[in-house]
Specification:
The complex is a heterodimer of chains A (about 350) and B (about 130). Chain A is α+β, with helices and mostly antiparallel strands and about 350 residues long. Helices cover about 20% and strands about 35% of the residues of chain A. In chain A, helix 2 packs across helix 7. The chains are: A alpha+beta (about 350), B alpha+beta (about 130).
Amino acid sequence: MEATLRRTPLFDRHVALGARMVPFAGYEMPVQYTGVIEEHKAVRADAGAFDVSHMGEIHVDGPSAQAFLQAMLSNDIDRLEDGQAQYTLLTTPTGGIIDDLIAYRLGRGEFYLVVNASNRDAVFTWLRDREPHGCEVRDASDEYGLVAVQGPRSLERLGLPEAPAFTHWMGELDGIEVMIARTGYTGELGVELCFAEDDAVTLWDAVIARGVTPCGLGARDTLRLEVCYPLHGNDISTETDAMSAGLGWACALDTEFTGVDALRRIKEEGPARRLVPFVMEERAVPRQGMPIEGGGEVTSGTHSPMLDLGIGLGYVPATSAAPDSELVIDVRGKPRRARVVKKPIYRKES
Amino acid sequence: MPAAESYPDDLRYHPEHDWARVDGEEATLGITWFAQDSLGELVHYEAPEVGATVTKDESYGEVESVKAVSDIIAPLSGEVLEVNAKVADEPETVNDDPYGEGWLIRIRMSDAGELDALMDADAYRSHVAEQ
């Protein structure tokens, strides 16, 4: 099995930095360098760098590309101008979620999608099989490296100008040509840098030399969970829909896309269960798959480094979904109390 | 600061990466440097109750890091006399000082003969090297 694991162009760098490597979505990826909590706090206080080169990049180009994506994706891609991006969902006819992704408009009829590593093939195949005339779908994942630099001092560390969230532009970092996007998945100020695979090592070294802390998948997971960003495969899947998952804001129900009728109906009737953020009221760490009393289930759970508490996301009956609802989680046979909270679970004091 | 790797000579070791420090009829138990390093920074210690019985080779509690949970295996049988409250409050104490401040429970041994089955530090170091 191990022989089949793929490596990003930064594999040797991770090993040299002392990372603990683990299998993730078919890749050998760094889960941590010095420690999840330390890396997590570096991102909240300063800046951290994540190798996310395992993620998929798909180009969708051509005169009919925009209309095609409007019909495939849940958000309103017509609202994007050149240099803008949006969070959106690829949906099934029943409103299930094939993947959540960021769509970037590079130019007229030129779009670029960054998708989860584990769904790269599913997204590419889904789109290619439906590709209309005048539109080409191309999986470019192996051509690019991708590094996320996140944290309140990320732009300053990289010498980049302030820019609105969900914008992107072509630029240069220490002599390397990069696409710079004001996106990320940590709830912090930050950018994602996309560059030619051959430049990966030079780019990474330049970022680290600027005092950015290398961070692994462990911190990436605790950071996104503190701000309630869903993880596909845990919190959302083809078996769950955007309305139940609290992702209605990423669905333009006034546009026509695959599954929109199902989603309109679920919205009108109200979801039977909802994905809610919660914090533990007793010392315990919730984990994916733990039952929630009354017919629910934890879909993501961890220990919040900022709150020093167990936190998680889980589906509960809609009647138990309001903030302050009391939950009881079965932690390996022991009932442990938790409380539904508002999003995000962690909010920076300002 | 995480502790440096060490396996003190005055302890006895269980292959599941637990240690015992014997003092007369009593023993202090904890997890080894190797165990805490494999888990990463600990964030939770699910301790047994004082007065509970622990049984050699069986779980008497759990330690958790951000990413993983692990049973704590008793290297010896006995009755729990004391639980380390500092570790319950600050589980990372185990990472900082696994053989000192990071001890987990103190027991009254019920069968001192069980000591013969445990490894000395040299044998445990060889065991760790094979992991």
